[in-house]
């Protein structure tokens, strides 16, 4: 089965205020491109922290356009599944009108947990960019690596994209609780 990697966006993306909708002209370097999108995810992580939730932000990009963005909303919505990644995947699926995100890239400020790693595999996300590692709960190499098991889809993983900035958000957030 061939998937339409250029299908049009079917729904309003409804990106949070302050999040860019696409890569600005003039950024041609791959490192600068990755950092641009991770900085958009960092903006979202800060929004989560301001709302009292663990500062994790996520953007999903297709053809250098942000098609979905989310941050952790577990505390706000009182729901264990409201992680940045699962919310962003749901919004990207709605925007594209299908569950396969085969032409997309995910940028997330913290290594995904087992639930989110499973959702990434199920959505067929081909590229995953991770900010900070999570040695205690990460499922992409931290606590264990779900993608080294026999899952049906394994994204290409790029680690440590602005890891210091992403990690500092978490340290600052949890430092307030101690």
- Average predicted confidence as pLDDT: 93
Please list the strands of the largest sheet in the order they lie side by side. Answer: 2-1-3-4-5
Q: Please tell me what the overall shape is.
A: globular
- Uncertain runs with pLDDT below 50, 5 residues or more? none
Instruction: Specify Rg, calculated over alpha carbons.
Output: 15 Å
> Helix/strand-derived class?
alpha/beta
- In terms of DSSP E residues, the strand content is 15-25%
Number of helices: 5
Describe the structure concisely.
This protein has 5 helices and 5 strands; from the N terminus they run αββααβαββα. It is of the alpha/beta class and 178 residues long. It is globular.
Features:
178 residues, globular, five-stranded mixed sheet, alpha/beta
Task: Give your account of this protein's structure.
- With 178 residues, the protein is of the alpha/beta class.
- The chain is 34% helix and 16% strand.
- It is built from five helices and five strands.
- It has helices at 30-50, 74-77, 84-96, 114-122, 163-175; strands at residues 57-62, 65-71, 104-110, 127-132, 156-158.
- A five-stranded mixed β-sheet has the order 2-1-3-4-5.
- Strand 3 (104-110), helix 4 and strand 4 form a beta-alpha-beta unit.
- Helix 1 (30-50) runs parallel beside helix 5 (163-175).
- The longest helix has 21 residues, at 30-50.
- The chain is globular.
- The mean pLDDT is 93.
Q: Helix and strand layout, with pairings?
A:
Elements (H helix, E strand, L loop, with lengths): L29 H21 L6 E6 L2 E7 L2 H4 L6 H13 L7 E7 L3 H9 L4 E6 L23 E3 L4 H13 L3
Parallel strand pairs: 3-4, 4-5
Antiparallel strand pairs: 1-2, 1-3
Helix pairs in contact: 1-5
């Amino acid at each position: 089965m061939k998937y339409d990697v250029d299908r049009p966006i079917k729904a309003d993306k409804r990106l949070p205020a302050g999040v860019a909708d696409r890569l600005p002209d003039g950024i041609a370097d791959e490192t600068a491109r990755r950092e641009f999108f991770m900085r958009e995810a960092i903006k979202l992580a800060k929004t989560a922290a301001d709302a009292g939730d663990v500062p994790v932000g996520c953007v999903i990009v297709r053809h250098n356009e942000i098609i979905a963005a989310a941050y952790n909303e577990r505390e706000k919505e009182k729901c264990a599944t409201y992680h940045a990644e699962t919310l962003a995947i749901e919004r990207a699926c709605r925007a594209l009108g299908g569950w396969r995100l085969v032409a997309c890239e995910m940028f997330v400020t913290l290594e995904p947990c087992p639930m989110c790693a499973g959702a990434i595999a199920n959505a067929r996300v081909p590229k995953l960019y991770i900010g900070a590692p999570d040695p205690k709960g990460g499922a992409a190499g931290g606590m264990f690596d779900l993608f080294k098991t026999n899952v049906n889809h394994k994204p290409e993983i790029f680690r440590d994209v602005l890891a210091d900035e992403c990690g500092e958000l978490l340290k600052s957030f949890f430092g307030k609780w101690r």
